[in-house]
């Protein structure tokens, strides 16, 4: 009997340690903005280099947390267009060597919380819209932070809550356009929109309208 009790206690101890080594975030709220440090090669490197994010972290993508039928999902704009992704898939898209999601959670400050339901409702109407390859705020296509920007702007009666500073596609170390952007816009047959208004995940993570409340890489 004593040996059986010891085994049971050992099993429970291992389960407890397993839970402790993999902390789970369970304080989600609809409207949370998820900032992701993704790896898309030279493009992501260029995006992250021009704007450092919260506490110096690098972000190349973001999306809005929504709830559907009791399940958490992420409304996001990716290469395939505006889509809704299972939260688990979003979190596991890019992970550290230890398997931790490369994701920070941002939450709007209380004075902006009332915008969330309308912002989500509007954002969901954009599902299926194409990805904004030109990074142009005036077309009917959307890149990740642009989707969030317009969703909350619509909810706020047409007034933006996120800044849209001049974009730059230049390497800050040498003052010249990143080669990856030169080739990219050459293929599109468009001029590089240097200085045009826009957004990126790093800059949005520094917005005064939200707080970063959780870091999956360093809980």
What characteristics describe this protein?
endopeptidase fold (from Nostoc punctiforme), alpha+beta, 219 residues, two-stranded antiparallel sheet, 8 strands, single chain
Distance between the termini: 40 Å
Q: What portion of residues is helical?
A: 25-40%
User: Which CATH class?
Assistant: Alpha Beta
**Strand count:** 8
Number of helices: 7
* Global structural class: alpha+beta
Overall geometry comes to globular
CATH architecture: Alpha-Beta Complex
| Quaternary state of the chains | single chain
* Fourth-tier CATH superfamily name: endopeptidase domain like (from Nostoc punctiforme)
Question: At the third CATH level, what is the topology name?
Answer: endopeptidase fold (from Nostoc punctiforme)
Gyration radius (Cα, Å) is 20 Å
The biggest beta sheet is recorded as: 6 strands, antiparallel
Describe this structure in words.
α4 (116-125) crosses α5. This protein has 219 residues and is an alpha+beta fold. The protein is globular. 32% of the residues lie in helices and 19% in strands. A six-stranded antiparallel beta sheet has the order 4-3-2-1-5-8. It has a two-stranded antiparallel sheet with strand order 6-7. The chain has one domain (29-215): endopeptidase domain like (from Nostoc punctiforme) (endopeptidase fold (from Nostoc punctiforme), Alpha-Beta Complex). The model is unreliable at 4-23 (pLDDT under 50). β2 (61-68) and β3 form a beta hairpin.
């Amino acid at each position: 009997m004593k040996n059986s009790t010891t085994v049971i206690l050992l099993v429970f101890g291992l389960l407890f340690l397993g839970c402790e080594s993999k902390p789970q975030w369970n304080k989600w709220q609809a409207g949370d903005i998820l900032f992701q440090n993704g790896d898309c090669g030279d493009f992501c490197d260029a995006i992250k280099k021009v704007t450092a994010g919260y506490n110096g972290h690098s972000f190349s993508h973001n999306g809005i947390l929504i709830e559907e039928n009791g399940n958490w999902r992420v409304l996001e704009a990716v290469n395939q267009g505006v889509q809704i992704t299972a939260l688990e898939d979003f979190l596991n898209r890019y992970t550290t060597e230890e398997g931790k999601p490369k994701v920070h959670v941002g939450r709007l400050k209380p004075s902006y919380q009332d915008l969330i339901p309308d912002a989500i409702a509007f954002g969901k109407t954009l599902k299926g819209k194409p990805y904004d390859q030109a990074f142009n705020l005036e077309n009917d296509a959307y890149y990740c932070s642009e989707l969030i920007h317009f969703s909350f702007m619509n909810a706020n009666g047409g007034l933006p809550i996120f800044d849209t500073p001049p974009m730059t596609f230049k390497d800050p170390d040498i003052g010249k356009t990143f080669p990856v952007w030169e080739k990219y816009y050459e293929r599109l047959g468009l001029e590089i929109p240097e200085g045009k208004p826009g957004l990126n995940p790093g800059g949005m993570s520094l917005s005064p309208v939200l707080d970063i409340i959780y870091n999956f890489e360093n809980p």
